[in-house]
């Protein structure tokens, strides 16, 4: 078995971490049990490029229970939990991921997964599929899945450009993914990452949330819950209005830049914090990114404005600007929740990875029948994941009476 990890001796710690996450992933566990019985992925090679965390480890176990041969590499060089990687290797699952790996090793790991010619690929940000389409002419999978908003955008761009060669399921677009993972997961864990990086108190501070999409809604709500005054920066009028009606102050970026104590970027866009913003920020302002790629904060512009920098805490750098102000950058501008904390809690990854497992099953069941484009998972699967999760939380659904069903289907009935 070929693999590349940091330290095999960490396996015991990793196994405990995986076990703890498993306890809070009941939906994935139900799928794992069904997969063990039905074996829907018998003999299928699955190549996954996901954050190498305890939650992902449980997804790998579920896929393997379904009969798949899985191989895993990282979807971000800073998010790998080395102990989890070691535990997976000990279980016989090849992992190619080392926390802090450089770009050359990161792509070497992606290529190692592609060398196995996976029949199903799984991406978080579309690096695996992008590398495959750019560098290989054959060895296409029967289908792929995509975890995050940014990856789905890239894949839609590939489909529009006519270069996508196989079907992809946009797991992110399932309601049980983006309404919970992006919102509640990112909301809590991005603030957790900043807390761990800086040990700051949010109460009484101004937190500027840039991007009020699924993730931004969660970050803003949690920051307000911790006592912060929240300012939202948006370019979409409807989303900006939604933020205003939630009671947040909505301002153009340059005005918000003057007010913020903490900035969180969650746009999926490039350089949303740049030279003009750094020029007016307060001394001591903290910058963090929770969007997929480390492009949201213009680091080259920050470097150009700075006369020095030093690491002041793990995951926190102080940048000294020419005029004496200091700005603090969390986790090198990479996903702060994964780099400075542990990513989303297992409770919410339970649903995202249930969707991933079902997407793999759906792709295999429909092999040969799908076109090379971006698909959503059928709604009944969303409903099933939500129902199982609700049950696990101790909630129960009400049901429509026959009279209500008739009423909802009719058009003749008025008052
Ligand atoms: P979304 O598309 O729902 O929201 C993005 C928002 O940013 C939109 O409302 C858009 O109008 C706004 N925006 C775009 N450019 C802007 C600009 N220049 N200034 C202000 N606002 C701007 O996307 P979602 O799902 O909230 O994801 C955002 C990013 O976070 C993506 O890169 C996604 O992949 C990533 N993500 C990160 C997670 C994490 O664990 N940290 C989890 C899930 C998603």
Descriptive account of the structure:
It is a single chain. The protein has 17 helices and 15 strands. With about 425 residues, the chain is α/β, with parallel strands linked by helices. The chain has 2 domains: about 10-175 and about 345-390, 3-Layer(aba) Sandwich (Rossmann fold); about 185-340, Rossmann fold. The strands form 2 sheets. An 8-stranded mixed β-sheet has the order 9-8-7-10-11-14-13-12, sandwiched between helices. The longest helix has 24 residues, at about 175-200. The radius of gyration is 22 Å and the shape is globular. It starts with 10 loop residues before the first helix and ends in a 6-residue tail after the last helix. 1,4-dihydronicotinamide adenine dinucleotide (NAI) binds near residues 213, 269 and 292.
